[in-house]
């Protein structure tokens, strides 16, 4: 069955500081010959993952990502036969460009948790001079923990299992702002031959300012009948600005959403001189 519509969904988990990309396409590819997935972060820095070259296709799996500001990311995995384990390390190179390096392991019938964990540790060590990231494996918890000054991790979840999953991120708060995602997949189909499909999506991640607004709203004294209270006014203003960002983003008014986000961040950082 050929692909009838290439599409994907993006879900952000603010409490765990990670987000995931999952294939929601109609139909399925026959034979994927080329596949890339690009993420453009707030500030227009972007990184592209060449999935096919790493023996992986988003059409069969999902991507789980940690923020670029991570200093520690722990990953768990289950041991299964003939399974490809893969992690992309996203970092800034010596030219100031955002790039990714990948490390992986393919298990067979004799693979052990220790063997898979050690492969990630050795893979991280082999690329640490470029990425600034090292890894350790805990044979008690079964976790691989990546450590560095500022990086992101993208791991592959196998469909229908919990084969790989990001367990914890420290501190690595997700940056607020617009994220753009684009997926390109080339399928070798029996009648039409090589066909390339493209899909794109944009999402506004607002984890930090939403947390700030909730805090301000919960601090309102509902028993106080006074007017002109600065804390209450700031809470109401921040809520209106948050809703304004969401409305502007939904209508494609990115410049307006960005301007409101800057203003709301000023309030949250106590930098607003008019509050």
Overview of the molecule:
The chain has 275 residues and is of the alpha+beta class. The protein folds into two domains: 8-205, no CATH class; 207-268, no CATH class. The chain is 24% helix and 41% strand. It has four helices and 13 strands. Strands 1, 2, 5, 6, 7, 8, 9, 10 and 11 form a nine-stranded antiparallel beta sheet that branches. A four-stranded antiparallel beta sheet has the order 4-3-12-13. α2 runs antiparallel to α3 and α3 (230-250) packs antiparallel against α4. It is globular. The N and C termini lie far apart (59 Å).
In brief, what are we looking at here?
The chain has helices spanning 113-131, 207-218, 230-250, 254-268; strands spanning 8-13, 18-23, 32-40, 46-50, 61-65, 70-77, 84-92, 98-106, 134-138, 143-158, 164-171, 177-189, 193-205. By secondary structure, the protein is of the alpha+beta class.
